[in-house]
Amino acid sequence: MLILLxxxxxxxxxxxxxxxxxxxxxxxxxxxxxxxxxxxxxxxxGSNEIVKMDTLGNVLRTIGGYGWSASAFDxxxxxxxxxxxxxxxxxxxxxxxxxDKDLNYLSxxxxxxxxxxxxxxxxxxxxxxNSQGDLYILDSDNTRILRFNFRGEYxxxxxxxxxxxxxxxxxxxxxINSINQLNVIDGKNLIVFDQFGNLVNRLKLDEExxxxxFSSNILLLIGDKKIDVLDWNSNPPKYSFSNxxxxxxxDAILFNKKLFVLTEKKLYVYQIHN
Length: 274
Fold this sequence. Notes:
It is a single chain. This protein is mostly beta strands and 274 residues long. The protein has one domain: TolB, C-terminal domain (Neuraminidase, 6 Propeller). The chain is built from no helices and 25 strands. The strands form six sheets. The chain has a five-stranded antiparallel β-sheet, with no helix packed on it. A four-stranded antiparallel β-sheet has the order 3-4-5-6, with no helix packed on it. A four-stranded antiparallel β-sheet has the order 7-8-9-10, with no helix packed on it. A hairpin with a 6-residue loop joins β1 and β2 (16-23). The protein starts with a strand and ends with a strand. The relative contact order is 0.15.
């Protein structure tokens, strides 16, 4: 369902955001991703469902429900959608479920299927895929990121205790930029690795953020009540949006010059004006 609004907010830097739509109705949404075709995918940890919508808010398909079988979930957290597939971090089932763009089940990556202890992960918090098809999983139990190839074969760990580059201490989430670098929120640090796990940069942050997303050469750092907008290699932010919602922000993403902001119950769509 699409609800049109004409509410505006003027951040101190002069960037104006105009809220003109509310999309969806969720129990406890956590993550949003939009693929190149413009289809919207939301993970709802409250209902253990994944919802696919168009930009008008029409629900095209919903899958899930509590469980451990294929297409069921136990607390789905971060999801990532590209042209072909949708990847879901099914946290309490210790797996990544992979679906096609229409949410038909394809396969999963699960620790139960690996004999190599180095590839075992628990409570995955985040998942993403780079332009070469390598898949990355944030293993929260071991505070590291694992890298797999497009066949689901383990390649290496990033930021683990045995890492010679940088050891992650409190990773919350990560995203991949346009040149396949990993940007990781680690406490009050923004850590940048290359695609193989070598440290590229480390930036100090003023606060701890709850989420992040990369799109259109822009990095979004997401707090409960604010969104900082950066060039992916810059600090401080280009501009910020703060205190424009009464609800806590769970996730946000840029698409087609619009800012999509997810709360537990709704997805808000803003137009950004200079």
